[in-house]
Amino acid sequence: MISVAQALQLTLSHSKKTNKTISIPIHKALGFVLAKDILSPINMPPFRQSAMDGYALGSIEEKSYTLTGEVQAGDDSDPVISKGEAIRIFTGAPVPKGAKAVIMQEKVSIENNQVVIEETVLENSNIRPAGEQIKKNEIALSKGTIIAPAGIGYLASLGITEIEVYLKPSIAIVATGNELVAPGQSLQFGQIYESNSVMLSAALQTYGFTAVDFFKIEDQYEATRTVLDKVIHQYDVVLISGGISVGDYDFVGKALRDLKVEEIFYKVKQKPGKPLFFAKKEETTIFALPGNPASSLSCFYIYVIPALQKISGHPHHDLKRGTAISDSNYKKKGQRAEFLKAIVADNKATILDGQASSMLRSFAVANAIVYLPEEIHEVKVGDTLQIIDLP
To answer: Do residues 172 and 237 lie in contact, with contact meaning Cβ atoms separated by under 8 Å?
Structure first.
């Protein structure tokens, strides 16, 4: 059994960034990582642009200017302005040739077609120069940038419609267990509803991983081996829920070893999630997660997400971490590191009841995980705790 730190280090060292790329429309690029630098095809703004609703002035020395016209955003008339003249102008409109400044409309008065200035005007005030934000052929976004909503808007403003990004991995979720039935079906004695696959799928979607397929297998060796052989050859990442312990009907471990996967580690000194199995088969990454829902989701956040982020080219490979002051007393019952569901507010962490690996109720309301390393055996109110933020 290895430590949490060792397990995370091994997970990341055996998760290789993909070299596969794809060109996609920018409106579909949210959460992807740029595979190469993007150069701006234009100056932005492409022309001198008014930053205000007001008046473009042909000089800045006068106190009164003759109003000679109007320019709206989108106008292509391109007027010329001379000394002593003013042109009504609106935010985003092209600044007339010869204009020395734009004055806000609140700073003038209009008298008999004359624009009367009420304060000193500085040259180029309220004018956005061409290329102020970026000049043509400058790097707009660098390789390795994660595409966010603002990035999509920025690229659209430059007229860019497609970008090259790292391809996200295809993912198979395999649920095991004779006792599992799909929600919505009639529940017979001895059966429980299968929740891990929809839970893991939702968690994957939170991080932008949508190329996910589902497989359900019963606790039978040949069926387990057949399905696992298929998904290992067809998907980049395989997440297996359950069947990895050492019970008489836990066939996942035997099937994986018979399929000659490279076992990186099995079992981590942690609670929940001790029977975590991590392996590789050629270019496929395999996580066999514990079947208990809270164990499965804890392992997903701590190990699977960092691996997926690294594979996808993300520069950061972990959930956001920090500290908070404990608002609870808690005492361990064993020697393993623990991941505890908690609510963090105003820098105070409340450790929730219902920490059992089979329980999701506390996870459903938690916004953080409290991490207690092996060497910490008891928590008291006022202690500083390590916190992992949940999405």
So the answer is: yes
In whole angstroms, give the CA distance from residue 314 to residue 330.
36
Structure tokens at 102: 């734009």
CA distance 242 to 240: 6
DSSP letter (8 states) at residue 223? H
Q: With CA atoms as reference, report the closest residue to 238 among 280, 269, 290, 189.
A: 280
Token pair listed for 160? 């860019």
SS3 222: helix
Q: Residue 284's beta-bridge partner residues?
A: 281
- Residues whose CB falls within 8 Å of the CB of residue 84, separated by 6 or more in sequence, listed in order: 58, 59, 62, 65, 66
Query: In terms of C-beta density within 10 A (0-12 exposed, 13-18 middle, 19 or more buried), how is residue 124 classed?
Result: middle
- What residue type is assigned to position 341 of the chain? K
Sequence-distant (≥ 6) Cβ neighbours of residue 162 within 8 angstroms: 23, 24, 25, 26
For the whole prediction, is pTM greater than 0.90?
no
The answer to whether 313 and 144 have CB atoms below 8 angstroms apart is yes
Percent of the chain with pLDDT over 70: 98
In sequence order, what are the residues at sequence separation of 6 or more whose Cβ sits closer than 8 angstroms to the Cβ of residue 217?
174, 175, 176, 223, 224, 227
pLDDT digits over 102-149, tens only?
Answer: 999 999 999 999 999 988 999 999 999 999 999 999 999 999 999 999
Judge contact between 117 and 41, C-beta under 8 A: no
> Which phi and psi (to 5°) does residue 329 adopt?
-100, 140
